[in-house]
Amino acid sequence: MNRKTLMIVVQEALQAEELARQAHALGWTVTGITTEGSAAKELFRQTAPKLILLDIDLDGDGVVLAREIRDLGEAAFIFLLSEGDGAGLERATSVDPLGFIVSPLGPLSLQAVLLPAWRHYRALLRFRLLHRYAPSGVLLFRHVADEGTYRLIHRNGAAEVLDGPLPSETPTFEEYFRDIDHRELRQLFDDVLLRGENRSCTVILRRRSHLFCWRHYSLLLFPEGEITAVFRDDTAAQRQKEEAQRRIHDLTAAIGRQEALASAATVLLDGKTPLEKRLRLCLEGLLAVLRRERPEAGFLLRWTGGDLAVGETAKTVALPFHFRTPNSSAAELIAFCSPQGDEDPSCCTLSYDQTEFIRRGMALIAGTLRHEEEQRRASDAIALLESALNDLALPIVLADREGMICYVNDSFEVCTGLFKEELHLLPLQALAQRMSPSATTERPLGRPENPLGHRLEITDDGERGAPS
């Protein structure tokens, strides 16, 4: 970048030699001298000079040659003009030269133009390198009044990578941003052009739940209706951030669901609370979790004990959970109710985690109802058994596995005069010892090797004693 190289392309050979001599004296390396346009292009390919000193009248029009050379690579020009050539000066400005030398040449003519041209070239080169390799995208649009829109005239390497191939050589604003909703961005372009103020904005585009675009645009107004849009694409970083937030949210929601299920199980196991109240508290606890995402949801429970509705139940019934309790004549039902779906009015959409949570909650309720029914049947069976034993004339005392008295029938009280309250949790052997051995018979209940309990029968009147 610091090596100063110069190619000289002028019509007169003597003038070219003089310019080369002065350039050498100023510390420049002359890569080649030519007086023909075709030779100049070949020389440029071979030597790639930093600057080109070009006669504007070469081959009739040196400006045309300058454009052809620029098509071959990056080139910066200094034009050699004849004194009073205003038309040539006008033409030369179209290729943005770094300076001009007017002939006839003076002793300081070349030095006066090469020094600022070299500084300008280095600054321009730095800008081009930054422009090309900057991580931010740069788009240069020009307003086309006849078309009522803007056309892209240049973009840097970052924009090429981020936005992909162009739909055309100079696409319109609408063609370039065809993949996004560009209405607000177009309005911002118009505001910058109308008011002459630089503006900035953030463009966020989502398709369903997927983040498609997250960009920060800074719009800079230049002369002749040119607007440079410098943008930073944060789509990938924002996706990672949202994914991390989603995972935290999912983890928090999963913990909340587990806590709700544990609380529901605790409520359902509380036998001191009436069953219907337990069921309602359980459903309300489950619904409190679901309502964070579905505020209009509800539960409907139908079982042999009646119907129970919690929340909004006049909605689409989703996730019907059918079950049957023992001795039930019809199938019971727990249903989750939710508003109708947007795409399919006959259903609602639930995530896998939501579905699993609802299913587990329903299973807890169904299990509780089955257990309650089994407990009721067992209590009825015990009551029937006690009634049958009380109706027997034979005095009977029952003890558990540990031999502690747990049941005394009415005949025993009549026969012995001992009351049930006196004998409760008294060792059976202690009772047998207080009575005549010949008047009592102890039998195991169940298998002899592993009895479930013991039974004491009185075959003759015993004497009443005060068991200790």
Automatic annotation (TrEMBL):
Taxonomic source organism: Aminithiophilus ramosus
Keyword hit for Coiled coil: yes
Protein name from the UniProt record: PAS domain-containing protein
A GO biological-process term: phosphorelay signal transduction system
Residue segments, region Disordered: 436-468
Biased composition (Basic and acidic residues): 452-468
Keywords: Coiled coil, Phosphoprotein
Coiled coil start-end: 234-261
Domain Response regulatory: 5-118
Domain named PAS: residues: 381-423
PTM annotation (4-aspartylphosphate): residues: 55
